[in-house]
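Known limitations

Structure tokens in this collection are predictions and should be treated as such. Users comparing against experimental data should check residue numbering before alignment. To illustrate the layout, the record for Septum formation initiator is reproduced below. The input appears on top and the generated tokens appear beneath it.
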Amino acid sequence: MRVDWERLARRALLIALFTILALYVAPAREWWRQRGELSREQRELDALERTNARLRTRVRELRTGAAVETEARGLGMVKVGERPYVVLPGR
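Generated tokens:
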């Protein structure tokens, strides 16, 4: 019986190729999953940065005396010496 070395070498190369490809499947899937997760995290970061910018603007606005007074009046506070009164609807 004669051994066909060329055929055996081709089979060995095919087995090696499929083994190498199989070894790349799990890392490729993980890379794809992380890519999706990165996209979600980036969108969340963008939203948080917009919220942060809006809050920083609000802080700057509230540091002025007029803004503090407006907020206090919105909470029902009055200045010393002012007379508080309540307007009831429908009366």
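For this record: The chain has a mean pLDDT of 91. Residues 5-74 form one domain. Please report discrepancies through the issue tracker.
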